[in-house]
Amino acid sequence: MTHASVAGSTNEVPADLVRLSVGLETTVDLVADLRQALDGLT
Fold first, then answer.
1. Rounded to whole angstroms, how far apart are CA atoms 42 and 40?
2. 20 and 34 in contact (C-beta within 8 Å)?
3. What is the rounded (10 degree) CA torsion for 23, 24, 28, 33?
4. DSSP symbols for 1-42
5. What was the pLDDT predicted at 32?
6. Using only C-alpha atoms, what is the Rg of the chain?
7. What is the pLDDT of residues 6-40, one digit of tens each?
8. Taking the model in full, what pTM does it have?
9. What is the pLDDT of residue 3?
10. How far apart are CA 2 and CA 12, in angstroms?
11. How far is CA 36 from the centre of its chain?
12. Cα(32)–Cα(1) distance, integer angstroms
């Protein structure tokens, strides 16, 4: 999904927004995936 079409409007999504989408994964898998993603930021 993209919000490029609303850039500059009141519907613009903040650049620092973090969106998580989860399904049927186990808690251990979700935490590991999130930790891996966050570790890649530093």
1. 6
2. yes
3. -30
4. ---GGGTTSTTPPPTT-------S--HHHHHHHHHHHHHTT-
5. 94
6. 14
7. 878 888 878 888 777 778 889 999 899 989 988 98
8. 0.50
9. 65
10. 10
11. 13
12. 24
